[in-house]
Design goal:
Helix content is 32%, strand content 17%. The protein is globular.
Length: 609
Amino acid sequence: MRGLRAGLTAALALVVATATAVQAQPAAPAAPKVLRYAFPVAETGFDPAQISDIYSRSITPHIFEGLYQYDPLARPAKARPLTAAGMPEHSADYRTWTVKLKPGIYFSDDPAFGGKPRELVAADYVYSFKRFADPAVKSPAWSWMAQFGFVGLDGLREAALKGKQPFDYDRPIEGLKALDRYTVQFRLEKPSPRFVTSALTLSDLVGAVAREVVEKYGADINAHPVGTGPFVLRQWRRSSLIVLERNPQYRDVRYDAEPAADDAAGQALLARLKGRKLPMLDRVEVSIVEENQPRWLSFLQQRADLIELLPAEFVNQAMPGGKLAPYLAEQGLQAFRSRRSDISLTMFNMEDPIVGGYTPDKVALRRAISLAVDVDAEIRLVLGGQGVPAQSPVMPNTLAYDPAFKSENSDHDPARAKALLDLYGYVDRDGDGWRDMPDGSPLLLRKATQPDQRSRQQDDLWKRNMTAVGLRIEFQPAKWPENLKASRAGKLMMWGVGSMAAGPDSLGTFQRYHGAQIGGQNMSRFKLPALDAIYEQLDVMPDGPERDALFVQARKLAVAYMPYKSHSHRIVTDMAQPWLIGYRRPLFWQDFWQYLDIDTEVQRQRAQP
């Protein structure tokens, strides 16, 4: 009996000791919340003043912050303060805008600051805006920035150009002033009623940059983005991998939004996430995966948490009849469909001796090419049915978009194309089976393209369409960043490009047609005084019927002269793993990763063996 009692006592002591030891063990650290994601096209860099591509501009607003941002759930879009303390004050004529900053916002740590915390101040925005005018920066967005007419900024740029001197950042100008440590004032040469949404919400371009950082890293600034935003760049292998991590210096920002009362999905997201500290993710890993199949397989194999713009060839497999396939629904995958605020275009270089020009014969050639292009087939075969034909360059979800507007832009009419070509002398003069120029010289269309599957599908369709009307075409493949650079320099004859609205106003669409923005947004190098005059009126007019009527005129001129062939507006399918929380496709803006969360327990339970 005594032996049994002693044994029980010893066993009990062992249990107590074991339990105590377990309690003394520190809790296992929570699994990091990592968003794994892929871009189909490589980035070009992370200096806001030196980028223009959508992929780089998807990274920068997560690192840099502008004065304002869009509410993540409000539809229609609604601007709200980001680093600003409130909405701006403006003069009655919309020429002077004054913004107060929130004190206590800091840049992420960087050696450029000498080991000291660096607070965001009004002078940082003055400096950041001035950088676009610095000739040494060679900003592709300078023409966009110049259109606002910041008083004195153009003169500052001209002084540097003419004097062949460094740009004088220290010279004060009336257009960009720090009134005190936390107050920045913008003075414009012309009214800008939509200045907040057309400029101040663009964290991807006009997020605050610290002068010390730019001066420290010089020509390598593209690889050293330092901002006040929710993430910091931790790793960058060019054209391969981009890694962002939570900014440890990020201030206390909580999730909040104002979805419409009848927006059930938005209201549910708000109820689930309201009050959560941002960002909710610890890390974002962006891979560059150019081909569609590997990107889709990576998602199916749970090596990606989100796939945006589901490739067309997999849409019917994943979403038969517009509904999530049963085998994917069983895995708990989420699907989101929406009409994107975008447009796909073919750019014609208006300075090219074959497709460029404003005379009737040149216009006829471009319009004939447009009539030969089978947009419906492109939507069906290349986009997997995920698109609607574009009637003009104006994008959905912007104010001047009219779903009832119809033009020849979407027509596929080879007979009419041939008649136009015949009428203006584009006939086969040497008997080789291909049409020649009216003067008898060879007519060879050269279209820039990319070496990926989707581009090859488009090229095959273009080849068939052009051959059907007797036009010879050849394709010149190169990486997308190389084509972008060549296009801006006016070295491409034709190129397929996409455009996505940056805000709710439709004026941004016509930046591509504005003569002053040649070399920037205006890649076609189109310059038509009548359209330039309309653009400049649209820019300064308040919203209303008169402005709406001008948009109608601009739309008609764009279609008539056709420096761009408008193809389609995308209907997009995005898919997410069951553990991703908070996704909603933004209407215009590029930053949304800070609003996402990962349910690591669901992720653990559903992980494939």
